[in-house]
Amino acid sequence: MSTYEVFLAVHILAAVIWVGGAFVIQLLAFRILREADPERMAGFSRDTEWVGMRFFLPASLTLLVFGFLLVNEGGWSLSDAWLGFALLVIAASIVTGAGFLGPEAGRLARAIDQHGAGSPEVRARLTRILLVSRIELVFLVLVVVDMVAKPGA
């Protein structure tokens, strides 16, 4: 395997972990919200925070680092529109995850402990987190399509 292929494999594996994991969390969220089981929602929010900080954040940073290595190794230019779009979305996603989703999941878990999993505050926080993460997922899928199609390249 060439250096480029190794970098590409790590980059793709990081994308699979990040985007695939985010997709599975959305599927589980739909199921859990439909059941309206407060204790299950509480466990889900704690698990999501744990996964986000220990897998999604490292995967997103790994993806970014290996993306830059691929640009360098493959002779791509950061001025290419398809790369600019991807970098913008990934940067926004990292900031959203580290600055909102992770911390808000922690606040949600504390609200569950304080007010109970069935409280209106908990439901509102969970709904807000899921909306933001759903929007983020749509953009991440668009980046995957962007990476495959490389429009303008």
Topology:
Elements (H helix, E strand, L loop, with lengths): L2 H33 L2 H37 L6 H35 L4 H30 L4
Helix pairs in contact: 1-2, 1-4, 2-3, 3-4
Please describe the structure with a list of short key phrases separated by commas or semicolons.
153 residues; mainly alpha; 88% helix; elongated
Describe this protein's structure.
- It is a single chain.
- By secondary structure, this protein is mainly alpha-helical.
- The chain has one domain.
- The chain has helices spanning 3-35, 38-74, 81-115, 120-149.
- Helix 1 runs antiparallel to helix 2 (38-74), helix 2 packs antiparallel against helix 3 and helix 3 (81-115) packs antiparallel against helix 4.
- The protein is elongated and about 55 Å long.
- The two termini are 24 Å apart.
- The relative contact order is 0.15.
- The model has no long low-confidence stretch (mean pLDDT 89).
Secondary structure category: mainly alpha
Number of strands: 0
Mean pLDDT: 89
> With helices defined by DSSP (H or I, 4 residues minimum), what is the helix count?
4
Name the poorly predicted regions.
Answer: none
- SSE pattern: HHHH
Rg from Cα: 17 Å
- The end-to-end span amounts to 24 Å
Share of residues in helices: over 70%
| Largest sheet properties | none
- DSSP strand (E) fraction? under 5%
Globally, the shape reads elongated
What is the count of distinct domains?
1
